[in-house]
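sry for the spam today, last one i promise. struct tokens for design, 70 residues
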């Protein structure tokens, strides 16, 4: 399943800064726009996996995983 997220980017003081609109805490800074987008992708993947691991750990045992589409 492909998910689409929104990267908000801007140039500030010679750097490109950006964040993912839908996921708090995913923000990066790079010298080029292309590097910024790649770093945001990597950071987003890592954050989603960490959040997933935390959620499963917190669930303990005897739980269900169900997909919800909005």
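last one done:
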């Amino acid at each position: 399943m492909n998910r689409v997220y929104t990267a908000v980017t801007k140039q500030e003081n010679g750097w490109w800064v950006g964040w993912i609109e839908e996921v708090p805490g995913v923000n990066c800074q790079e010298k080029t726009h292309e590097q910024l987008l790649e770093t945001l992708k990597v950071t987003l993947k890592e954050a989603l996996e960490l959040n997933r691991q935390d959620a499963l750990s917190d669930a303990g045992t005897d739980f269900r995983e169900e997909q919800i589409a909005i």
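The chain has a mean pLDDT of 95. ok im logging off now
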